[in-house]
Design brief:
By secondary structure, the chain is an alpha/beta fold. The chain is built from eight helices and seven strands, in the order ααβαβαββαβαααββ. Helix content is 42%, strand content 21%. Strands 3-2-1-4-5-7-6 form a seven-stranded mixed sheet, with helices on both faces. The relative contact order is 0.16. Bound molecules: ligand GEK.
């Protein structure tokens, strides 16, 4: 059972920038489940996408793995295929918990959990990579070089799943924001929690529009960019090399 997310329950004098620290890692499954519409469905579909795209003798990358939910979905999707999965996150609190989660999982493929920055690791001989709600935390100027590196590290026909919170250029922003805050309230978050978390995430989570993501993925070298999920202002794209 996951611990209940109470990180923003109490009124804070000064709201510090959001960080993936121990307090967040402790409650992360509950936090992401109640904060990202469709999160569980997206993770389980990544398992299905892995089943289709993973090639034996290659590597699969879970970039910004948190507690390893996506790595585990890929691990079960590929079954007995001879693949190595690399799960990487730069939060030590996440990585140490992720190692326990992976150790308790009964999937077959090797999963190496690495504490490091996804902008700095090599991506090699990959048939699949996932940036499941991670790119939004990477500084905007670093996004294109990262996507180029991923595309270059994928074998032909390899795929990247990119899931993100979106920004909208028009009135859709207000409509979807309103529905999104309804979603958070319906999941038990108070007005105070919603507003304090929103402040903490300013300048930390930087959403972009679907056209910005599409243009950047094509510039990075991907051949096809296929949006396959949207739940209010959250989406997931499949980019095929
Ligand atoms: C899931 N994918 O459950 N290098 C490495 N990790 C990073 C970096 C970076 N530069 N920037 C952020 N992170 C997961 C959920 S959460 C999404 C991903 C969310 C890590 C950060 O430490 C955090 O664990 C993760 O990216 C983002 O499918 O909380 O909305």
């Amino acid at each position: 059972m996951s611990n209940r997310d109470r990180v923003f329950t109490r009124q804070q004098e000064q709201i510090a920038a959001f960080a993936f620290d121990d307090a967040v890692a402790r409650v992360f499954p509950d936090m992401i489940q109640r904060s990202v519409p469709g999160y569980s469905m997206v993770v389980s579909m990544i398992g299905l996408i892995a089943e289709r795209y993973a090639q034996s003798g290659t590597q699969l990358y879970d970039l910004g793995s948190s507690l390893g939910a996506t790595a585990i979905a890929m691990r079960h999707g590929i079954g007995e295929r001879d693949c190595r999965i690399v799960a990487i996150d730069n939060s030590e609190a996440m990585v140490s918990r992720c190692r326990q989660v992976i150790a308790n999982d009964n999937g077959l493929a090797t999963v190496d959990v690495i504490c490091g920055d996804i902008r700095e690791i090599a991506i090699e001989n990959a048939s699949m990579a996932a940036l499941n709600f991670t790119l939004q935390f990477v500084p905007v100027d670093d996004r294109l070089p990262l996507l180029k590196k991923i595309c270059d590290g994928l074998c032909p026909g390899g795929a990247l799943v990119l899931s993100e919170k979106l920004a909208f250029p028009d009135a859709h922003q207000d409509i979807l924001d309103t529905l999104y805050y309804d979603y958070k309230r319906a999941n038990g978050y108070s007005e105070l929690e919603v507003s304090q978390k929103r402040t903490a995430l300013e300048n930390v989570l930087i959403p972009e529009t679907l056209s910005e993501h599409r243009a950047r993925l094509l510039e990075a070298g991907f051949t096809h960019v296929v949006p396959w999920y949207q739940g209010f202002n959250f989406c997931s794209l499949l980019a095929v090399r």
